[in-house]
Write a structure and sequence with these properties.
This protein has about 180 residues and is an alpha+beta fold. The chain is built from nine helices and nine strands. The strands form three sheets. It has a four-stranded mixed beta sheet with strand order 4-5-7-6. Strands 1-3-2 form a three-stranded antiparallel beta sheet. Helix 7 packs across helix 8 and helix 8 packs antiparallel against helix 9. The longest helix is centred in the N-terminal third of the chain and has 13 residues. It starts with a helix and ends with a helix.
Amino acid sequence: MLKYLINTGKTVFSSEDMAKIFHISNKNYLAVLLSRMVKRKELIRIRKGIYACSPNYNHLELANKLKRPSYISLEKVLFDNSVIFQDYSNNITSVSNNNYSERVNDTLYSYHKIKDDILMNPVGILTENRVRTASVERAVCDTVYLTKNFYFDNLDGIDKEKLLEISKIYNKRVVAEIKKYV
């Protein structure tokens, strides 16, 4: 069974994922199976309903599993792309349909509410290795939307045309503020 999980290429699995992979429709049987796999140390239980095959799971993949729908954005993407310099290595920030935060081991997973029509708009959202992440331009727009007059340390590497284009899915205030940066 473990081979099936490893062959998917995923590092984090929900109970629903396991039911599909193992073709199990009986929730009680699935719960017993997962409990036994954890006891045999074939799986690591990250929290209720979420598992990993190894302690070296992808933290960004976990961020997408903890809260759905969501995508990684804001300070995490801005720091990783040298737009802000304050270290956010132990905090993964995401955008979702409500505010929520959860600590798993040493990492804080923070989710910030954004309107559904913006959240579900695919413009500027990248999917790599099963992880949904905002492009740096989308992360700038998300940040401006959620925080008025946010200070960005370095906007030199930003594609200004993409930034303007993405800002159009937000409100007039965001478009006006983005125009100041361009």
